[in-house]
Fold this sequence. Notes:
Blueprint: E1 4-6, H1 9-17, E2 25-30, H2 36-48, E3 51-56, H3 76-85, E4 90-92, H4 96-99, H5 112-115, H6 118-122, H7 126-141, E5 145-149, H8 153-165, E6 171-175, H9 195-201, H10 203-216, H11 222-232, E7 237-245, E8 259-267, E9 270-277
Parallel strand pairs: 1-4, 2-3, 2-5, 3-4, 5-6
Antiparallel strand pairs: 7-8, 8-9
Bound molecules: adenosine monophosphate (AMP).
Amino acid sequence: MKTILIQTKKELIDYKDSLPKDSIIGLVPTMGALHNGHKSLIECSRKKDTQTIVSIFVNPTQFGENEDFSKYPRDLNKDFKLCEENGVAVVFAPNPTEMYPKDDEISLRPPKNMGYTHEGFIREGHFDGVLRIVLKLLHLSTPHHAYFGEKDAQQLLIIKRLIQDTFLKTKIIPCPTQRDIDGLALSSRNIYLSKEERLEALKIPTALKKIAEAVQKGELKTSILIELAKIELENLNVEYLDICDHDLNPIAYIQKNSSIALIAAKVGKTRLLDNLWL
Ligand code: AMP
């Protein structure tokens, strides 16, 4: 199958209209700078869907004023090649005016309890922007399945709520976090890290591993687990280290299969996120 590059809404709708009725469409929304984490989402879709659409769009509305929107890594040719090699049917790479033709448009807000803590607290308006773009992408591609990484845990949980609250039919498929051999979660922003910073960054997966091991041994008290992780994160600029339920509420004890440990830390100028689904 030859991968098609589509850059307008109309072409995407025409493409969809041209598909056989029994097609199963999978959407993988990304901001590009594709790595093996994105590739794993594509592979997941390739197993389930007859057509995989990968969107590549650095979404301006989810970046704060002092964030890295303009310097976010972009390489459409390289990304397109990765998609081609992995059997993607369509790369949808619109420009910002295609997705946001009007300055003043309907806004969306995440639920109050889960949208304004953690990432939502530190990056004001971030999830408003994520919801806006994801809803637009879902409407344009009307996929049967949409794939999101567990790496961005809060985003995944809020998008699940978007589907529930707006009665969309798309099924959200969570995909496990992919890591480099040294344990660092893959991220498009890892390229910003110097060699020394990368070593520092490894404290994050190590801290999560400590939590996992302790839980495995039967420790369920979150205050104790957090203390264990803190030791590993010494001297790192930690923005949050928390253990929550799936509504992002703090919890005193781990409840198996419905708890997450979340870490955000800055290494040099680079913000890194990681988490552990417990
Ligand atoms: P991004 O391009 O950073 O917006 O990410 C696009 C999608 O890829 C999101 O659903 C992310 O959660 C997912 N993703 C990013 N990094 C990873 C990773 N290391 N493992 C699995 N999924 C990831």
